[in-house]
Amino acid sequence: MQMAPAKLEYIWLDGYQPIQSLRSKTKIERNFSGKLEDCPMWCFDGSSTEQAPGGSSDCLLKPVFLAKDPQRRDGYLVMCEVLSPDGTAHPSNGRALIEDDDNDFWFGFEQEYFLWNPETEKPIGFPEGGFPKPQGPYYCSVGANNAFGRAMVEEHLDACLDAGLNIEGINAEVATGQWEFQVFAKGAKEAGDQVWVARYLLERIGEKYGIAINWHCKPLGNLDWNGSGMHANFSNSLLRTCGSSEIYVKVCEAFRPVVQEHIEVYGPDNHLRLTGKHETAAIHEFKFGVSDRGASIRIPIGTVERGWKGWLEDRRPNSAADPYKVAARIVKTVKSAEAQLEKLAEANVA
Protein backbone atom coordinates (compact mmCIF):
# COMPACT_ATOMS: atom_id res chain seq x y z
CA MET A 1 0.00 0.00 0.00
CA GLN A 2 1.38 3.39 -0.97
CA MET A 3 2.04 5.66 2.00
CA ALA A 4 0.76 9.23 2.11
CA PRO A 5 3.39 11.88 1.42
CA ALA A 6 4.97 13.10 4.65
CA LYS A 7 5.47 16.75 5.52
CA LEU A 8 8.88 17.15 7.14
CA GLU A 9 9.30 20.50 8.85
CA TYR A 10 13.05 21.14 8.98
CA ILE A 11 13.83 23.46 11.92
CA TRP A 12 17.12 25.23 12.60
CA LEU A 13 18.67 28.23 14.34
CA ASP A 14 19.76 31.22 12.32
CA GLY A 15 22.89 33.33 12.78
CA TYR A 16 21.33 36.43 14.31
CA GLN A 17 22.94 37.91 17.42
CA PRO A 18 22.63 38.22 20.33
CA ILE A 19 19.54 35.98 20.10
CA GLN A 20 19.25 33.31 17.43
CA SER A 21 15.80 32.84 15.92
CA LEU A 22 14.06 29.70 14.80
CA ARG A 23 13.69 29.10 11.07
CA SER A 24 11.85 26.29 9.30
CA LYS A 25 10.70 25.06 5.93
CA THR A 26 8.75 22.05 4.70
CA LYS A 27 10.08 19.14 2.68
CA ILE A 28 7.69 16.60 1.15
CA GLU A 29 8.97 13.02 1.33
CA ARG A 30 7.07 10.18 -0.30
CA ASN A 31 7.18 6.72 1.34
CA PHE A 32 8.85 8.17 4.45
CA SER A 33 9.64 5.50 7.06
CA GLY A 34 9.10 7.77 10.07
CA LYS A 35 12.71 7.27 11.21
CA LEU A 36 15.33 9.95 11.81
CA GLU A 37 17.96 8.11 9.77
CA ASP A 38 15.73 8.37 6.71
CA CYS A 39 15.48 12.17 6.90
CA PRO A 40 17.80 13.39 4.12
CA MET A 41 20.30 16.18 4.45
CA TRP A 42 18.94 19.43 3.04
CA CYS A 43 20.20 22.96 2.47
CA PHE A 44 19.05 26.58 2.71
CA ASP A 45 20.09 30.08 1.74
CA GLY A 46 22.40 31.17 4.53
CA SER A 47 22.71 34.68 3.10
CA SER A 48 19.12 35.29 4.27
CA THR A 49 19.79 34.12 7.83
CA GLU A 50 23.12 35.82 8.67
CA GLN A 51 24.96 32.51 8.14
CA ALA A 52 26.65 32.90 4.74
CA PRO A 53 27.63 35.55 2.16
CA GLY A 54 25.54 35.92 -0.97
CA GLY A 55 28.30 34.67 -3.23
CA SER A 56 28.51 31.34 -1.45
CA SER A 57 25.20 31.06 0.34
CA ASP A 58 24.45 27.34 0.77
CA CYS A 59 24.36 25.94 4.30
CA LEU A 60 23.52 22.34 5.13
CA LEU A 61 20.79 21.01 7.42
CA LYS A 62 21.68 17.82 9.28
CA PRO A 63 18.64 16.18 10.93
CA VAL A 64 19.37 15.28 14.56
CA PHE A 65 15.96 14.90 16.25
CA LEU A 66 12.58 13.78 14.98
CA ALA A 67 9.12 14.19 16.49
CA LYS A 68 5.58 13.83 15.24
CA ASP A 69 4.02 17.12 14.18
CA PRO A 70 0.74 17.06 16.12
CA GLN A 71 -0.81 19.89 14.11
CA ARG A 72 -0.24 18.67 10.56
CA ARG A 73 -1.60 15.60 8.86
CA ASP A 74 1.27 13.20 8.08
CA GLY A 75 3.67 15.75 9.56
CA TYR A 76 7.01 15.52 11.36
CA LEU A 77 9.20 18.06 13.14
CA VAL A 78 12.88 17.68 12.22
CA MET A 79 15.36 19.56 14.40
CA CYS A 80 18.60 20.17 12.51
CA GLU A 81 22.16 21.22 13.08
CA VAL A 82 23.55 23.78 10.64
CA LEU A 83 26.71 22.70 8.80
CA SER A 84 29.02 24.62 6.49
CA PRO A 85 29.25 23.37 2.89
CA ASP A 86 32.30 21.25 3.77
CA GLY A 87 30.27 19.34 6.38
CA THR A 88 31.85 20.93 9.45
CA ALA A 89 29.77 22.54 12.18
CA HIS A 90 28.75 26.11 11.34
CA PRO A 91 29.92 28.76 13.87
CA SER A 92 26.27 29.30 14.83
CA ASN A 93 25.85 25.62 15.73
CA GLY A 94 25.79 25.46 19.54
CA ARG A 95 24.74 21.82 19.61
CA ALA A 96 28.10 20.76 18.17
CA LEU A 97 29.82 22.17 21.29
CA ILE A 98 28.28 19.57 23.60
CA GLU A 99 30.65 16.82 24.76
CA ASP A 100 28.19 14.20 25.98
CA ASP A 101 28.37 11.35 23.51
CA ASP A 102 27.34 8.74 26.09
CA ASN A 103 24.27 10.74 27.25
CA ASP A 104 25.49 10.52 30.85
CA PHE A 105 24.28 14.07 31.53
CA TRP A 106 20.59 14.60 32.24
CA PHE A 107 19.04 18.05 31.97
CA GLY A 108 15.74 19.55 33.04
CA PHE A 109 15.14 23.06 31.71
CA GLU A 110 12.53 25.39 33.25
CA GLN A 111 11.60 27.69 30.38
CA GLU A 112 9.90 30.95 31.37
CA TYR A 113 8.46 33.39 28.82
CA PHE A 114 5.95 36.19 28.38
CA LEU A 115 2.87 36.03 26.19
CA TRP A 116 3.18 39.34 24.38
CA ASN A 117 0.68 41.62 22.68
CA PRO A 118 2.48 42.78 19.50
CA GLU A 119 0.17 45.79 19.17
CA THR A 120 0.62 47.25 22.65
CA GLU A 121 4.17 45.91 23.12
CA LYS A 122 3.20 44.72 26.59
CA PRO A 123 2.38 41.35 28.12
CA ILE A 124 -1.18 40.18 27.70
CA GLY A 125 -3.17 41.11 30.80
CA PHE A 126 -1.71 44.62 30.94
CA PRO A 127 -4.44 47.26 30.66
CA GLU A 128 -4.08 49.92 28.00
CA GLY A 129 -2.19 52.94 29.23
CA GLY A 130 -1.32 51.48 32.60
CA PHE A 131 -0.22 48.57 34.73
CA PRO A 132 -1.99 45.70 36.42
CA LYS A 133 -1.89 45.04 40.15
CA PRO A 134 1.65 44.42 41.48
CA GLN A 135 2.99 40.91 41.09
CA GLY A 136 1.99 38.39 43.67
CA PRO A 137 -1.44 37.00 42.71
CA TYR A 138 -0.36 35.71 39.29
CA TYR A 139 1.97 32.85 40.25
CA CYS A 140 0.19 29.49 39.75
CA SER A 141 -3.02 31.50 39.55
CA VAL A 142 -6.50 30.63 38.35
CA GLY A 143 -9.29 32.96 37.28
CA ALA A 144 -9.77 35.70 34.73
CA ASN A 145 -8.45 38.39 37.08
CA ASN A 146 -5.00 36.83 37.34
CA ALA A 147 -4.40 34.15 34.68
CA PHE A 148 -4.06 35.32 31.08
CA GLY A 149 -3.57 33.20 27.96
CA ARG A 150 -4.44 29.81 29.44
CA ALA A 151 -6.14 28.53 26.27
CA MET A 152 -2.96 29.02 24.25
CA VAL A 153 -0.75 27.57 26.98
CA GLU A 154 -2.97 24.47 27.27
CA GLU A 155 -2.91 23.99 23.51
CA HIS A 156 0.88 24.16 23.60
CA LEU A 157 1.03 21.58 26.38
CA ASP A 158 -1.16 19.17 24.43
CA ALA A 159 0.87 19.73 21.27
CA CYS A 160 4.12 18.93 23.09
CA LEU A 161 2.66 15.77 24.59
CA ASP A 162 1.20 14.68 21.27
CA ALA A 163 4.59 15.26 19.63
CA GLY A 164 6.17 12.90 22.17
CA LEU A 165 8.25 15.57 23.90
CA ASN A 166 9.12 14.90 27.52
CA ILE A 167 7.41 17.99 28.86
CA GLU A 168 6.97 17.68 32.61
CA GLY A 169 4.61 20.49 33.50
CA ILE A 170 3.45 24.07 33.11
CA ASN A 171 2.49 26.91 35.44
CA ALA A 172 1.58 30.56 35.43
CA GLU A 173 4.56 32.58 36.64
CA VAL A 174 5.08 35.54 38.96
CA ALA A 175 4.41 38.38 36.50
CA THR A 176 1.28 39.15 34.53
CA GLY A 177 1.18 37.19 31.27
CA GLN A 178 4.25 35.16 32.23
CA TRP A 179 4.26 31.35 32.02
CA GLU A 180 6.67 28.43 32.26
CA PHE A 181 7.05 24.94 30.87
CA GLN A 182 9.57 22.30 31.94
CA VAL A 183 11.36 19.78 29.71
CA PHE A 184 13.55 16.88 30.82
CA ALA A 185 15.76 14.54 28.77
CA LYS A 186 18.54 12.03 29.34
CA GLY A 187 21.36 13.37 27.20
CA ALA A 188 22.41 17.00 26.94
CA LYS A 189 21.89 17.19 23.19
CA GLU A 190 18.40 15.76 23.27
CA ALA A 191 17.45 18.09 26.12
CA GLY A 192 18.37 21.01 23.90
CA ASP A 193 16.54 19.47 20.95
CA GLN A 194 13.37 19.11 22.96
CA VAL A 195 13.48 22.66 24.34
CA TRP A 196 13.92 24.09 20.85
CA VAL A 197 11.10 22.01 19.37
CA ALA A 198 8.85 23.05 22.29
CA ARG A 199 9.77 26.69 21.65
CA TYR A 200 8.99 26.21 17.96
CA LEU A 201 5.53 24.81 18.71
CA LEU A 202 4.80 27.69 21.09
CA GLU A 203 5.81 30.29 18.50
CA ARG A 204 3.72 28.60 15.81
CA ILE A 205 0.64 28.28 18.02
CA GLY A 206 0.99 31.97 18.85
CA GLU A 207 0.38 32.78 15.18
CA LYS A 208 -3.17 31.43 15.55
CA TYR A 209 -3.87 33.60 18.60
CA GLY A 210 -2.09 36.72 17.38
CA ILE A 211 0.19 36.50 20.41
CA ALA A 212 3.97 36.77 20.20
CA ILE A 213 6.42 35.08 22.56
CA ASN A 214 8.83 37.42 24.32
CA TRP A 215 11.90 35.44 25.34
CA HIS A 216 13.83 38.46 26.66
CA CYS A 217 14.94 38.01 30.25
CA LYS A 218 13.64 41.40 31.40
CA PRO A 219 11.14 42.71 28.83
CA LEU A 220 9.63 45.19 31.32
CA GLY A 221 12.99 46.81 31.99
CA ASN A 222 13.83 47.97 35.49
CA LEU A 223 10.23 47.96 36.68
CA ASP A 224 9.52 45.87 39.76
CA TRP A 225 8.50 42.73 37.87
CA ASN A 226 10.26 39.39 37.79
CA GLY A 227 12.40 38.58 34.79
CA SER A 228 12.35 35.31 32.87
CA GLY A 229 14.85 32.53 33.40
CA MET A 230 15.63 29.11 32.02
CA HIS A 231 16.86 27.36 35.14
CA ALA A 232 19.06 24.40 34.24
CA ASN A 233 18.70 21.31 36.43
CA PHE A 234 21.50 18.86 35.69
CA SER A 235 23.13 15.65 36.85
CA ASN A 236 25.53 12.98 35.72
CA SER A 237 26.54 9.62 37.17
CA LEU A 238 28.79 11.30 39.73
CA LEU A 239 26.03 13.54 41.10
CA ARG A 240 23.40 10.81 40.94
CA THR A 241 25.42 8.25 42.89
CA CYS A 242 28.22 9.85 44.95
CA GLY A 243 26.39 10.17 48.29
CA SER A 244 28.85 12.83 49.43
CA SER A 245 28.25 16.44 50.41
CA GLU A 246 32.00 17.05 49.98
CA ILE A 247 31.85 16.00 46.33
CA TYR A 248 28.85 18.26 45.75
CA VAL A 249 30.77 21.18 47.22
CA LYS A 250 33.76 20.45 44.96
CA VAL A 251 31.52 20.33 41.89
CA CYS A 252 29.87 23.61 42.84
CA GLU A 253 33.25 25.22 43.54
CA ALA A 254 34.38 24.28 40.01
CA PHE A 255 31.88 26.86 38.74
CA ARG A 256 33.41 29.72 40.75
CA PRO A 257 36.51 30.48 38.59
CA VAL A 258 34.51 30.33 35.34
CA VAL A 259 31.64 32.68 36.19
CA GLN A 260 32.31 34.85 33.14
CA GLU A 261 32.49 31.89 30.76
CA HIS A 262 29.05 30.78 31.93
CA ILE A 263 27.50 34.24 31.85
CA GLU A 264 28.67 34.66 28.25
CA VAL A 265 26.35 31.85 27.11
CA TYR A 266 23.55 32.29 29.65
CA GLY A 267 21.61 34.76 27.53
CA PRO A 268 21.90 38.44 26.58
CA ASP A 269 21.15 41.31 28.97
CA ASN A 270 21.37 39.03 31.97
CA HIS A 271 22.70 41.94 34.03
CA LEU A 272 19.14 43.30 33.97
CA ARG A 273 17.84 40.09 35.55
CA LEU A 274 20.68 38.90 37.81
CA THR A 275 20.56 41.78 40.29
CA GLY A 276 20.42 39.96 43.60
CA LYS A 277 16.68 40.65 43.75
CA HIS A 278 13.66 38.72 42.50
CA GLU A 279 15.12 35.33 43.46
CA THR A 280 18.48 35.83 41.73
CA ALA A 281 22.12 36.13 42.68
CA ALA A 282 24.03 39.16 41.38
CA ILE A 283 25.57 38.54 37.98
CA HIS A 284 29.26 38.70 38.91
CA GLU A 285 29.09 36.97 42.29
CA PHE A 286 28.92 33.24 42.82
CA LYS A 287 27.30 31.40 45.67
CA PHE A 288 25.58 28.08 46.21
CA GLY A 289 23.44 26.64 48.95
CA VAL A 290 20.83 24.10 49.88
CA SER A 291 17.32 25.18 48.85
CA ASP A 292 18.59 28.74 48.20
CA ARG A 293 16.73 30.39 45.31
CA GLY A 294 18.88 33.47 45.72
CA ALA A 295 22.01 31.48 44.91
CA SER A 296 23.81 31.04 41.60
CA ILE A 297 23.51 27.28 42.02
CA ARG A 298 20.84 25.74 44.23
CA ILE A 299 21.35 22.35 45.83
CA PRO A 300 17.80 20.96 45.86
CA ILE A 301 16.50 19.65 49.18
CA GLY A 302 15.59 16.44 47.31
CA THR A 303 19.28 15.82 46.65
CA VAL A 304 20.09 16.13 50.35
CA GLU A 305 17.15 13.94 51.39
CA ARG A 306 18.37 11.22 49.04
CA GLY A 307 21.70 11.16 50.85
CA TRP A 308 23.48 13.52 48.45
CA LYS A 309 22.42 11.58 45.37
CA GLY A 310 20.62 13.77 42.89
CA TRP A 311 21.14 16.93 40.88
CA LEU A 312 21.99 20.63 40.93
CA GLU A 313 20.16 23.67 39.59
CA ASP A 314 22.00 26.53 37.89
CA ARG A 315 19.58 29.44 38.25
CA ARG A 316 21.54 31.89 36.11
CA PRO A 317 20.61 30.97 32.49
CA ASN A 318 17.94 33.30 31.21
CA SER A 319 14.89 32.69 29.07
CA ALA A 320 16.57 33.66 25.79
CA ALA A 321 19.65 31.48 26.29
CA ASP A 322 20.44 28.68 23.86
CA PRO A 323 19.97 25.42 25.83
CA TYR A 324 22.65 23.79 23.67
CA LYS A 325 25.27 26.35 24.72
CA VAL A 326 24.12 26.30 28.35
CA ALA A 327 24.40 22.51 28.47
CA ALA A 328 27.77 22.51 26.72
CA ARG A 329 29.24 24.91 29.28
CA ILE A 330 27.80 23.06 32.28
CA VAL A 331 29.08 19.71 30.97
CA LYS A 332 32.55 21.19 30.51
CA THR A 333 32.66 22.59 34.04
CA VAL A 334 31.35 19.43 35.70
CA LYS A 335 33.86 17.34 33.76
CA SER A 336 36.65 19.61 34.99
CA ALA A 337 35.50 18.94 38.56
CA GLU A 338 35.51 15.19 37.88
CA ALA A 339 39.06 15.41 36.54
CA GLN A 340 40.18 17.21 39.71
CA LEU A 341 38.49 14.60 41.90
CA GLU A 342 40.21 11.80 39.98
CA LYS A 343 43.61 13.45 40.49
CA LEU A 344 42.94 13.78 44.22
CA ALA A 345 41.93 10.11 44.39
CA GLU A 346 45.08 9.05 42.55
CA ALA A 347 47.22 11.18 44.85
CA ASN A 348 45.61 9.63 47.93
CA VAL A 349 46.22 6.14 46.59
CA ALA A 350 49.85 6.97 45.86
UniProtKB/TrEMBL annotation:
Single Gene Ontology BP annotation: glutamine biosynthetic process
Name of protein: Glutamine synthetase
Organism from which the protein derives: Puia dinghuensis
Biological function: Catalyzes the ATP-dependent biosynthesis of glutamine from glutamate and ammonia.
PANTHER family the record matches: GLUTAMINE SYNTHETASE (PTHR20852), GLUTAMINE SYNTHETASE 2 CYTOPLASMIC (PTHR20852:SF57)
Start and end residues of each GS catalytic domain: 85-350
Similarity-based family: Belongs to the glutamine synthetase family.
Catalyzed chemical reaction(s): L-glutamate + NH4(+) + ATP = L-glutamine + ADP + phosphate + H(+)
PROSITE patterns: GLNA_1, GLNA_ATP, GS_BETA_GRASP, GS_CATALYTIC
Keywords attached to this entry: ATP-binding, Cytoplasm, Ligase, Nucleotide-binding
Domain of life (superkingdom): Bacteria
